[in-house]
Amino acid sequence: MKSMVRTLKMMLILALSVPLLSGCWDRVDPENMAFIVAIGVDPGPKNDYLFTFALAVPKPVNAAGGGSQSPTNKKLITVYTVESSNIASALVASQSFIARRLTLIHAKAFIFGESIARTGLMPILSEVVRNREFRRSMYVMTTRGDAETFIQNILPTTETDISLWIELELDPNDMGSLIPIKSRFNDFILDIESAGTGAITIQASPRLDIRKGLSQIPSEGSDSSSSGTSQPIIGKQNAGKIRRYGEIPLEFYGSAIYKGSKLAGFLDGSETLILNMLTGSFKKSIWDFPDPSDSSLNISMIVSPEKQTRMHVQRKNDKVHIDFDIDMEGDLVSVQSKVDFTKPENTKKLESLVQKQLLEQSNQLISKLLHKWESDCFRINNYLKSTFSTLKEWEDFNWREHIKDVEYEANVSFKMRRYGDQVGPAIEGDASRD
């Protein structure tokens, strides 16, 4: 009898426990969620912030067949802005006019307006690192102007999936390394929290002139930035200043450099290529150089590392010396002159010019980052720490105060590898008789 009572009690406890073990009490169906794909931050009017959110617009579903229909409305996102002291409060306020449950689990981009970036980001970052919904794989960018204006101009024309569009648009390999290779939130916050390290984000900008149909490519002589009749180097442009018209009214081009949690300045596309090369993250990209036979023309080649850049750090007392060993190679893809660069003498001239250009640009960028902006974007501190016996010695050294006094030397080697499918220049048949 006692054993039967004990058995009945166990069965009763088990029956009552089953509902509690289901784990679905706080479940929210995806159909009831509103997915935030981009967050922008600007300074607010009352010592607070303006948070701009871009929500993915749900695709209409065919109720009969269960499949997606072709949307008649091509709008992919809806955008709104809320004033608040932090993101969590902004999301709570947003639920007063957003029917679905807001979530950040699929957020792809975190965008800082230029003014808030120059003021300092630590109050915002302190909240983000605590929020479980923020993924550290988000892309981080700094836009010229306001983040709100930038997000309002996210108007994709070639994709129907906003998340896919962001992933494709911000893939540094698709961009040819004209944006920083390491531009995810995880890289950004680790650099911010590391002593002396300079954090890097993508440089972005809205193009209101393109949206209004007012953009024009300046004619010869009307652009003060052009030098004579020389062809422009495409990489020497910043986001918002690319010579074009048409398509989406925003751009991702170049990088933004931080000193601590404050924006130090922007690098154009060419400087970003050099930065990726010096940090050892460069893979390959189209690169323009002046033609050694005619400086008014450009040649283009696919440049890739023969070996990834090696950095050697030496310290003697308080003096720090850095050596960069850079080995690159190139495949010729565009030549407008009639010079045959397969000839040994011409190959040597071309290699010498490219090597000289890479060396000059490397020295200029290293000096700008270390001596002018005092920002260690090369993560020298990771190597320098090993030269100290204890953590206290390293902390007492105060790396930030010594960045401006760093001595450096860049050693560049460049070799031509291929010359294209047709190795010789294209020559007009009648011209060959002259």
From TrEMBL:
Main location as per UniProt: membrane
Domain Spore germination GerAC-like C-terminal as annotated: residue spans: 254-420
NCBIfam families linked: spore_ger_x_C
Superkingdom of the source species: Bacteria
Residues covered by region (Disordered): 214-236
Extent of the signal sequence: 1-22
Annotated membrane topology: Lipid-anchor
Keywords from the UniProt entry: Germination, Lipoprotein, Membrane, Palmitate, Signal
Domain Spore germination protein N-terminal: 26-199
Ranges of compositional bias, category Low complexity: 215-235
Keyword Signal part of the UniProt annotation: yes
PROSITE patterns: PROKAR_LIPOPROTEIN
Family as reported in the entry's similarity comment: Belongs to the GerABKC lipoprotein family.
Protein name: Ger(X)C family spore germination protein
KW Signal (keyword) present: yes
Subcellular location: Membrane
